[in-house]
């Protein structure tokens, strides 16, 4: 049985995967054969990610009311979540009595070397973030501290850090929704990479020591 828990005090805590959760056996899922031996387990199946993303989209719709949404997608690891979240918001908007204007912008961050987060954060496409002026910002990730220092210079109205897996969402409203809280293990898949590998993996998995050595630079 999966060791998932949903925090009871407010929806923002999201789904918590316990530290001692061993994950699902790879034999239960399909994944690219070229990653055979490179993974330890599946920690979040793709279907669970999609269900949780739909719930987050509903929360955003409920919170925003009639406010427009400005989405800032953090490349590269956040592109899949961003695309799926935007699609869910569009679906909900198209099938309701109200529609929410939405624009999408992109920024690229690079801070990892192998499985270590470095202090040298590269921000590409963030030279002019004047579109953030007067907006509320919601973001997540180990690289967020440096990124927030960068975007503060553009005068956002409010900054709120949230936890999901590899994404940033910006809007004209304060949000604090969490997708998943996972153990401190290096995960790949669903656009999260290890030296640019594993982005083509649908599930979120734990990389094995063999995989780290194989793709180490």
Q: Could you give a short account of the major beta sheet?
A: 3 strands, mixed
Q: Strands of the largest sheet, in order across it?
A: 1-2-10
Tally of alpha and pi helices = 4
Assigned CATH class: Alpha Beta
- Number of individual domains: 1
The amount of helix comes to 10-25%
In the CATH hierarchy, what is the architecture at level 2?
3-Layer(aba) Sandwich
The structural class is: alpha/beta
Q: How would you state the average pLDDT, rounded?
A: 75
Estimate the strand proportion.
25-35%
Number of strands: 12
Shape: globular
Low-confidence stretches: 131-142, 160-164, 166-175
Cα-atom radius of gyration: 17 Å
Kindly report the CATH topology.
Rossmann fold
Characterise this structure:
The protein has helices spanning 46-64, 79-94, 144-152, 209-214, and strands spanning 4-6, 15-17, 39-44, 69-75, 102-113, 116-124, 136-139, 158-161, 168-171, 180-181, 187-188, 204-207. It has 217 residues and is an alpha/beta fold. The chain has a single domain (20-215), classed as 3-Layer(aba) Sandwich (Rossmann fold), CATH 3.40.50.2020. It starts with a strand and ends with a helix. This is Hypoxanthine-guanine phosphoribosyltransferase-like. GO terms for molecular function: hypoxanthine phosphoribosyltransferase activity; magnesium ion binding. Pfam families: Pribosyltran (PF00156). Residues 50-194 form the Phosphoribosyltransferase domain.
């Amino acid at each position: 049985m999966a060791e998932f828990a949903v925090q009871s005090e407010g929806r923002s805590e999201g789904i918590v995967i316990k530290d001692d959760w061993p994950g699902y056996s790879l034999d239960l899922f399909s994944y690219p054969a070229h990653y055979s031996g490179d993974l330890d387990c599946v920690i979040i199946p793709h279907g669970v990610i999609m269900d949780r993303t739909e719930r987050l989209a509903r929360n955003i719709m409920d919170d925003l009311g009639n406010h427009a949404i400005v989405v800032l997608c953090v490349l590269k690891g956040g592109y899949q979540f961003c695309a799926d979240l935007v699609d869910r918001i569009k679906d909900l908007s198209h099938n309701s009595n109200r529609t929410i204007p939405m624009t999408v912008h992109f920024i690229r961050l690079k801070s990892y070397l192998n499985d270590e987060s470095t202090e040298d954060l590269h921000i590409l496409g963030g030279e002019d973030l004047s579109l953030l002026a007067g907006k509320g910002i919601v973001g997540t990730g180990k690289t967020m501290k440096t990124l927030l220092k960068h975007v503060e210079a553009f005068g956002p109205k409010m900054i709120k850090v949230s936890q999901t897996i590899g994404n940033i969402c910006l809007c004209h409203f304060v949000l604090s929704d969490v997708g998943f809280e996972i153990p401190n293990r290096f995960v790949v898949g669903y656009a999260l990479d290890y030296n640019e590998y594993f982005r083509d993996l649908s599930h979120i998995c734990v990389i094995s020591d063999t995989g780290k050595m194989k793709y180490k630079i």
